[in-house]
Structure formats: structure tokens, C-alpha cells
């Protein structure tokens, strides 16, 4: 399989290069040259497979000969052995709702599904190429810990995660800083999340530095993350439908950067019988407004909500969908993102907007509605939703045959849960005892120079 850029500015590359490149060098996102099709017979045959076996089948056509089947199988098995549930992503019935629990990985959030795989994949590809990768990122919470757990202890990889000192939740901070592997570097910067992100951007913008030190990112634009996430749509569909290709299922997806729901769109394009994909957003509703109006317009600011992993201004994976909506017309994609850069908005015409409405439903859910959903689900069934999941469940009210994706364990968001129902969810083993663990973290001023100097020193010492 070859990979192209949504903006048409790169020569076709293979899967391994696409994974290592992350963002396309022309500023676009990487997409496969074609979307493999799954037949009704395959859907029937796959219905009895385990998550790991299914992952092997779903991923293989996107990877082709580049990774031998037995190697890919081993990578998948290793990646999901860290999950605490034998089904990896179990589907549970909760008072008439179907909840797809994606939070049984080591950091209790759905990002583990993709990042456990991506970490092993990076290690495998680097061993083959003899290269090194130094991951740099800033986090306001969940992504940093999932990325650290994805690559801890891996050969040829170092990871540097910046967080704003004292401004992330104590559990999230401990999840990251209690990882003591030598290749993990936690940096608390004396500033805000925006300061931390600004530093990362400026170091990535320093191209000589970036290439001399093999800097890379693990953000949600990496194609391998999308691919790994599409697997659980197939897995959930099989359990609802029993493998009957006539049976269509909808999914409600708590959405921020559009990675998760795009994985569902990919599954649908491959031939999975998906009825509707519901984009569930919080008050940061750029995507909901787009589905309603065809106008994708940046709001005046990012609102802080009870579902912080979805507090985004622009959805970084949206460009992939736009590419498919415009039938692969890269020139048009590029022109629209030019509009976006100059005016903060882009718009599709009426006929394309009708296709958007056929692909997605969307709803923006307020904090009050989120709390109300946690409360009503708990009182009717005793099941506790995390606030992100509650946004998705609320958005799917009244729909039939819908699977709601549960993106985090409720114990990670004790404050919101406490506000809703006056008690805390029991912690999964991965979160227990965290506060008593030994930690390692260094503190730096919130300047690019300070972080750059630290990186240079640490990387020279690590070689
Ligand atoms: C990252 C995240 C989301 C949003 O997923 P996207 O792929 O960015 O749309 C939702 N819920 C939780 C708990 C997350 O960590």
C-alpha cells in the first residue's frame, strides 16, 4: 500500500515511511492511496475472531508486504497484552445502552489502544532501519501519559513530555512522573499549557535542530493510530450483529481531534455496515457546527469543560475527512486550508454539505447535560460514565442500535463524577497506589532555550 498527502505535495511512500513521517512534509495528512474493501463473506468470517486476530485482518491490507504477517501478529499480541480485560475492548449493556469500554489499557483511557501499538511499531521499524526517534510533546493531561506508556523501555526511543507545572490533575501528573524508565523524561515547565505547547512548536520549527536530534511527535495525526482505532469498530459491530452483514449499527463518539470518529468513518468506507456516526462534542463545538451548516469556523476561544480531552479549537484529523468528502481533490483541500489560515474558516457547498449530513449526526452537549447524563445512567443502572463518555451517551439519546464509545475510566475524572453523583468510581488496578509511588521529573523555565538545552544534554548522555 502506498500513502499520499491530502495536499498532494509528496511522492507516494510506503507504510513504514508514513508511520515515521507522521505529518506529511507538505503540511497535509497522510492517507492510503486506496481504501481496501471488506466483503460480506469476510465480515461473516471475522465475527468470531478475537480482538487481536481481527486487528491482524483489518491492518494487513494497509501494510501489505512491508511487515511479515508473523511479525505483525507478534506486534499486535504484545500491544494488547498490557490490557486488563481479556476481550481488550469489551462491549457492555447498560440500561438499554451499549457501551464499548476502551479504557482497559495501562493509562485507563482509549488512547492506549492506539499508542500501545504505535510504541511497539516504532521500536520494530527503528530496529530494522537502525534509526533513532526522540519524541517531544506537550500535554494538558491524557495524551502525555498514554504516549509515555506506549514507549517506556523501548530501544532507540527517548520521550520528552512537557506539562505545565501544577496545572494538571495530581493523578495525571503521577501517571507520567512515576514511570522511571531511563528513556522517559518528564519536564514540568513553569508556565501554562499554551507556553509548553509553544515551546514544542518552536523546537519543531527549528529544522536543523529537529533533524540533528531526530525529533518526532506522537500526536493523533499518525496514520497508525487511526488504523489501530478502526479495529474496535469491527469488533463491536461483530458482537452486536453476530456477523450478519445486513445488520447496520451506529456509533456515538466523544470527539476532540476527530481521530477516533475518523477511524469509524474509515471502517465504514471499508464496508463495515455502519448506519450513523455521531460526533459528540462538548461546548467546543466546531465540528457540530460544521455538520449542521457546512461551515467550519474557529470559535473565539477554547472553553474549559468537564470533558477536558475534548477541549479543542481545531480538529487535527478533520483534513482527512475533507479529502474524502472532496473525492480526493488535493488542490481543493489545499485551497480550503488556505481559506482557513487566512480567515479562520472554510466552507463546503450545498451538495457536499448534504453528504456530510448523510455521513454524520452531531450534537454539542453542555456541562449541565453531561452531569445529568452521569446521574441518570447511574441511577437507572448503577454504571458510572466518565464525563467524555457521558457526552457521547447524551448525544445518542433516542437512537436505536447504537454503540457508545467509552473513552476513559470514570475514576480518572473523580471531580466531575463526584459533582454528578456524590461518590467516586472504584479505581482500576492501573490507577491504584499511584500517589505513593516514587517520581522523577525535572523543572524548567518556560522557554524554548531552557528545554532545548536540556534535550541536547540528555540526548548526548543517552547515546
Ligand atoms: C483524546 C480523547 C478524546 C477525543 O478523541 P479524538 O480522537 O481527539 O477525537 C475523547 N475522550 C478522551 C477521554 C480522550 O482522551
Could you outline the blueprint of secondary structure elements for this entry?
Blueprint: E1 3-5, H1 15-21, E2 30-32, H2 40-46, H3 51-63, H4 69-80, E3 91-94, E4 97-101, H5 111-129, E5 133-138, H6 142-151, E6 157-164, H7 170-177, E7 184-190, H8 193-205, H9 207-212, E8 215-216, H10 223-241, E9 249-254, H11 259-270, E10 274-281, H12 286-293, E11 295-297, H13 318-325, H14 330-343, E12 345-347, H15 350-359, E13 360-364, H16 367-381, H17 387-395, E14 402-406, H18 414-421, E15 442-445, H19 448-462
Parallel strand pairs: 4-14, 5-6, 5-8, 6-7, 7-15, 9-10, 9-14, 10-13
Antiparallel strand pairs: 1-2, 3-4, 11-12
Bound molecules: pyridoxal-5'-phosphate (PLP).
Pyridoxal-5'-phosphate binds next to helix 11.
Detailed description of the structure:
Helix content is 46%, strand content 16%. The protein is globular and about 60 Å long. The chain has helices spanning 15-21, 40-46, 51-63, 69-80, 111-129, 142-151, 170-177, 193-205, 207-212, 223-241, 259-270, 286-293, 318-325, 330-343, 350-359, 367-381, 387-395, 414-421, 448-462, and strands at 3-5, 30-32, 91-94, 97-101, 133-138, 157-164, 184-190, 215-216, 249-254, 274-281, 295-297, 345-347, 360-364, 402-406, 442-445. The relative contact order is 0.14. The protein contains 19 helices and 15 strands. Helix 4 (69-80) crosses helix 5 (111-129) and helix 16 packs across helix 18. A six-stranded mixed β-sheet has the order 3-4-14-9-10-13, sandwiched between helices. A five-stranded parallel β-sheet has the order 8-5-6-7-15, sandwiched between helices. Bound molecules: pyridoxal-5'-phosphate. Residues 109-111, 142, 220, 254-260, 309-310, 388, 407-408 line the site of pyridoxal-5'-phosphate. It holds the Pfam family THR4_C.
Amino acid at each position: 500500500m502506498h500513502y499520499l498527502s491530502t495536499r498532494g505535495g509528496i511522492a507516494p511512500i510506503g507504510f513504514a515511511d508514513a508511520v515515521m513521517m507522521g505529518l506529511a512534509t507538505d503540511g497535509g495528512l497522510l492517507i492510503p492511496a486506496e481504501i481496501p474493501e471488506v466483503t460480506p463473506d469476510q465480515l461473516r468470517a471475522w465475527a468470531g475472531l478475537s480482538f487481536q486476530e481481527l486487528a491482524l485482518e483489518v491492518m494487513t491490507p494497509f501494510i501489505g508486504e512491508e511487515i511479515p504477517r508473523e511479525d505483525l501478529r507478534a506486534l499486535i499480541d504484545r500491544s494488547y497484552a498490557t490490557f486488563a480485560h481479556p476481550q481488550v475492548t469489551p462491549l457492555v449493556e447498560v440500561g438499554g445502552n451499549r457501551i464499548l469500554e476502551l479504557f482497559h489499557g495501562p493509562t485507563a483511557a482509549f488512547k492506549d489502544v492506539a499508542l500501545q501499538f504505535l510504541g511497539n511499531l516504532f521500536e520494530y521499524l527503528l530496529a530494522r532501519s537502525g534509526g533513532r526517534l526522540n519524541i517531544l510533546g506537550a500535554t494538558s493531561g491524557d495524551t502525555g501519559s498514554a504516549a509515555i506508556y506506549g514507549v517506556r523501555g523501548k530501544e532507540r526511543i527517548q520521550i520528552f513530555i512537557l506539562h505545565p507545572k501544577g496545572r494538571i490533575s495530581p493523578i495525571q501528573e503521577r501517571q507520567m512522573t512515576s514511570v522511571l524508565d531511563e528513556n522517559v523524561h518528564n519536564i514540568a515547565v513553569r508556565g501554562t499549557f499554551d507556553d509548553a505547547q509553544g515551546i514544542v512548536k518552536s523546537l519543531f520549527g527549528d529544522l536543523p535542530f529537529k533533524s540533528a536530534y531526530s525529533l518526532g511527535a506522537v500526536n493523533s495525526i499518525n496514520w497508525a493510530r487511526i488504523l489501530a482505532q478502526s479495529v474496535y469498530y469491527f469488533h463491536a459491530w461483530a458482537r452486536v450483529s453476530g456477523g450478519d452483514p445486513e445488520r447496520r449499527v451506529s456509533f456515538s463518539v466523544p470527539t476532540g481531534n476527530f481521530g477516533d470518529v475518523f477511524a469509524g468513518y474509515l471502517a465504514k468506507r471499508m464496508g463495515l455496515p455502519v448506519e450513523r456516526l455521531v460526533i459528540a462534542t462538548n461546548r467546543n463545538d466546531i465540528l457540530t457546527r460544521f455538520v449542521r451548516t457546512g461551515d467550519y469556523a474557529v470559535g473565539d476561544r477554547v472553553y474549559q469543560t468537564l470533558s477536558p480531552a475534548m477541549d479543542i479549537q481545531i480538529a487535527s484529523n478533520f483534513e482527512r475527512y475533507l479529502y474524502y468528502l472532496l473525492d480526493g481533490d488535493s488542490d481543493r483541500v489545499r485551497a480550503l486550508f488556505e481559506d482557513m489560515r487566512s480567515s479562520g474558516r472554510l466552507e463546503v457547498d450545498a451538495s457536499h454539505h448534504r453528504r456530510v449530513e448523510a455521513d454524520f449526526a452531531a450534537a454539542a452537549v453542555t456541562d449541565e447535560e453531561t452531569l445529568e447524563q452521569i446521574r441518570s445512567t447511574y441511577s437507572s443502572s448503577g454504571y458510572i460514565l466518565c464525563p467524555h463518555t457521558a457526552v457521547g451517551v447524551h448525544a445518542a439519546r433516542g437512537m436505536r442500535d447504537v454503540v457508545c464509545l467509552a473513552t476513559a475510566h470514570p475514576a480518572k475524572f473523580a471531580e466531575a463524577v463526584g459533582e454528578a453523583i456524590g461518590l467516586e468510581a472504584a479505581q482500576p488496578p492501573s490507577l491504584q497506589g499511584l500517589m505513593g509511588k516514587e517520581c522523577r521529573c525535572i523543572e524548567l523555565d518556560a522557554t524554548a532555550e531552557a528545554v532545548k538545552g536540556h534535550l541536547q544534554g540528555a540526548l548526548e548522555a543517552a547515546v
